[in-house]
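Worked example

This section walks through a single chain of length 439. The input is the sequence exactly as stored; nothing has been trimmed or padded.
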Amino acid sequence: MRRWLSGLNPRTHRRMRVVLPFATLLVLVLGTLLVHALEQPDPGDPGYLDPGASGGTGSDRLAAALRAAGTEVVPVTGTEEALDRVREKPGVTLFVPAPSFVDLQTLSNSTGLPPDTRIVVAGAELRDLERTGWPIGHAGARWAAKAVEKDCALPLLPGPAAVLRQKYATPDGTVCYGGGLVAYEDGAVTVILVGAADPFRNDRIGEHANQAFATAVLGGDRVVWLDLHERENRVAEPEPSESTSPSPFELPSEEQSLPAPPPDAGTGTPAAPPDAGGRQAARPPLTDAFPAGFWATLVLAALALLALAAAAARRLGAPVAEPLPSRVPAHETMLGHARLYQRARARGPSLDVLRAAARRRLAEHLGLPRDASVTEIAGQAGLAPDHVRSVLGGDSPETDADLVAAARAVQDLVRDVTRRPITENRSVIDHRTAGGEPS
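Given that input, the structure is written out below as tokens.
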């Protein structure tokens, strides 16, 4: 990296020293987000929370624990089939491990369910809750599931359990585990929303009290396990007739633009619109999607890289001449200046210093004023003006090798002129003026 930076010109080098730390931070953040997205389980995977799958995201360990406790596990693959199995007897638990694939609207509006029926939904997001008639709101999401202690009076639930990833709120039910669990009584049906699927997975069920929590939530005589890994086909709504279809150039009226509230499951009458604690809550900001520690680490890393960039780019301009604070031997001063120029990779300013010193020495040796031009120096020294101009006023070097070659050319020019006496230089000029060649 240092060799690559040393090959750049000073301005580009300074810019890269500022840009590279922030580019590194951006790559780390994007890489973290990408790895996190790849590591998340896919509900569309056939083994995701499958009661017969033994993989890390499967649930055969939970199914075995339920059967050992005397609970019958009945896997089904459709919402209507699941409701039919629930209606067979009271006290049945309907488990929905992948709510994004389930027809939650039909499930929430279902009627005629036996008493003591429980509907357990794992990891429902805001877009899932918007398809239900439950007065349960989405209060934010976390980067990963967090194990929290039980903080409610619900019986049989242990703690701590890794349920806090999706956070819920409701004005009519019980909120537990810091919002990671909500229990809502909908007539004879108890709706339970769990904020994360971790307690039901094989690779997480042994952590904390996840297994005890999962068996307590799903325990009973029978669990109807809605094992879906693709979206159910919804019945298409009938298209409006030609007589009632609105014109494409007309805006819908206020009554047409507002959706009708879903009917209440117990009475069949339209339910009142939810209040501020209902499911129509505003989407959480991005700051709520990650834990506080993530943002603190990100801010500290940004501050550290900002300080590093400021330290690396502290010299934002060309070197300037400053008087020394005290007398220092000339040799040490020269070495100190040379090291500063070398560290800053200021090849052009370094060569300019050498050329300026050479012009002063040549002008003094040839009896010219200190501000003599290159043409005057070349004429007094008897040298070709183009040659002297290329040595004392050429282009800036791009590499260290170019700097060494240019400095050697300046040194050779000074030695060539100062070794000859002034009379010899003048005789060379007079001889060339007469049209001859020097001997």
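What to look for: The domain at 60-231+264-284 is CATH 3.40.50 (Rossmann fold).
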